Automatic annotation (TrEMBL):
This is Acyl-CoA dehydrogenase family protein. SUPFAM superfamilies: Acyl-CoA dehydrogenase C-terminal domain-like (SSF47203), Acyl-CoA dehydrogenase NM domain-like (SSF56645). Its cofactor is FAD. The keyword Membrane does not apply. Residues 14-124 form the Acyl-CoA dehydrogenase/oxidase N-terminal domain. It comes from the Bacteria. Keywords: FAD, Flavoprotein, Oxidoreductase. Residues 229-378 form the Acyl-CoA dehydrogenase/oxidase C-terminal domain. The lineage of its organism: Bacteria, Bacillati, Actinomycetota, Actinomycetes, Mycobacteriales. Residues 129-202 form the Acyl-CoA oxidase/dehydrogenase middle domain. Belongs to the acyl-CoA dehydrogenase family. InterPro entries: Acyl-CoA_Oxase/DH_mid-dom (IPR006091), Acyl-CoA_Oxase/DH_mid-dom_sf (IPR046373), AcylCo_DH-like_C (IPR036250), AcylCo_DH/oxidase_C (IPR009075), AcylCoA_DH/ox_N (IPR013786), AcylCoA_DH/ox_N_sf (IPR037069), AcylCoA_DH/oxidase_NM_dom_sf (IPR009100).
Length: 383
């Protein structure tokens, strides 16, 4: 009996193709404001309104609180981010952070807090943020100094978080802090007395970014997320679910860069013919195309595995994040090279992509930190 070849085993199911189409429609709809939004240090109101109207932020929370699926689906987040990042880093970040900032709360928050806040996350009425890094603490989160202490019927936080996405614009923060001898996660409304924000930094691809400072910030006991000492477990669950979506965004940026380079190479006449047929340009184009398809294949495989078992598939998500972001960096760089002087024009679409691609190799796990973790896992457990 011959195998059934009528079904494409490697095609996305219809549900995800529909999400792709909706995301692409949204991404195209923000083209008129994308350049402005991608230079902004604050939430762009037009992008926010259009994202909210799309209903896609419902993917960021479970159905119990107005979400699309019973549980947050890594593949859905990934295919949507691929489309959004192709047009606007601001739009992509706004969408992704609704999930990243609220996932721990969905897993371990008190019913009262979840019932009040997660429906607002799903509708984008409330903006979410996750506070991990500190001025002197990056990947080594066990060195963090922000502390939480129980004081009667409240918890008091003191510390300084830095480079926090959505900082200053968020309606609440999920904050990782030391508690006794462990680390816990806390839900902190942005209007809590003693909480302040400042913006001492901006990155090469402008971003809604701030330091968040806690000076005797008091919250109710039920604002602890999960049990005392469960903070790292909740953060790891967040990374396991959303890390692969960074790979999706990287694939989208790479695809967009290649499209710009191909359009330029076909239209640009040099030495009596199109640039796309001159010298090494055809090889560069073909290499970019090949690399993107390879990265997309691993990304979709990892995202599908993560949707089934996020913690058990973290190694695949980590591999996809490394491969896709490194591929994106190479593809965008080659695309700039193909476009020559037109590729380095300030304010152009390819320049925005060039700047947006670079941070992707650092945030949510730098390439080097991820490879070190994968190597230790491989040496310890084998293939």
């Amino acid at each position: 009996m011959s195998p059934d070849t009528t079904t494409d085993l490697f095609a996305l199911p219809e549900t995800y193709r529909d999400l792709q189409d909706r995301a692409r429609e949204l991404a195209v709809s923000v083209r008129d404001v994308a350049a402005r939004a991608d230079e902004a240090s604050e939430t762009d109101p037009d992008v926010r309104a259009r994202l909210a109207a799309s209903g896609l932020t419902a993917l960021a929370v479970p159905a119990r609180w107005g979400g699309t699926f019973d549980a947050v689906d890594s593949l859905a987040m990934t295919v949507v981010r691929e489309q959004l990042a192709a047009e606007s880093a601001h739009l992509d970040s706004m969408f992704a952070m609704q999930g990243i900032g609220s996932y721990g709360l969905a897993l371990g928050g008190s019913d009262a807090v979840r019932d009040e806040w997660l429906p607002k996350v799903a509708s984008l009425e409330a903006i979410a943020a996750l506070c991990l890094t500190e001025p002197h603490v990056g990947s080594d989160l066990k060195a963090l100094t922000t502390r939480a202490e129980v004081d009667g019927d409240r918890i008091v936080l003191n510390g300084h978080k830095s480079f926090i996405t959505n900082g200053g614009d968020a309606d609440f923060y999920s904050v990782l802090a030391r508690e006794d001898d462990g680390y816990s996660l806390f839900f902190v409304p942005a209007d809590s007395p003693g909480l302040s924000t400042e913006r001492p930094h901006q990155i090469i691809a402008p971003h809604v970014l701030a330091d968040v400072i806690f000076a005797d910030v008091a919250i109710p006991l039920d604002h602890r997320i999960g049990e005392p000492g469960q903070g790292f477990s909740l953060v790891l669950a967040t990374l396991a679910t959303f890390r692969v979506s960074v790979a999706g965004a990287a694939v989208g940026m790479a695809q967009s860069a290649l499209a710009l380079a191909l359009e330029h190479a076909n239209a640009r006449e040099q030495f009596g013919g199109p640039l796309s047929k001159l010298g090494s340009v055809p090889e560069h184009l073909a290499t970019c195309w090949t690399d993107i398809e390879a990265a997309r294949s691993l990304t979709y495989r990892a995202a599908a595995a993560s949707a089934r078992d996020a913690r058990g598939s973290l190694h695949l998500s980590s591999m996809a994040k490394v491969v896709a972001t490194e591929t994106c960096g190479r593809v965008v760089d080659r695309s700039v090279q193909i476009m020559g002087r037109f590729g380095i024009v300030r304010g152009s679409d390819i320049e925005r992509l060039y700047r947006a691609a670079r941070p992707a190799r650092i945030y949510e796990g730098s390439t080097e930190v991820i490879l070190d973790s994968l190597a230790r896992q491989l040496v310890k457990n084998g293939l």
